Amino acid sequence: MARFIGAILGAAHAAASGAVGSLTDPFFCNGRVARMLRDYFTGDVAQNDILSLGYVDWTTRFDPTLSVIEFTDFGTAITLDIGVALDPDCLLAAQDIATAAGSASPLKSVAIADRHKPLWQLAGYASAQAARAATVKDGGRAEIIATFKGGNPDAGTVSWSFYGSPQ
Question: CA 43 to CA 70: how far, in whole Å?
Answer without folding.
Answer: 14
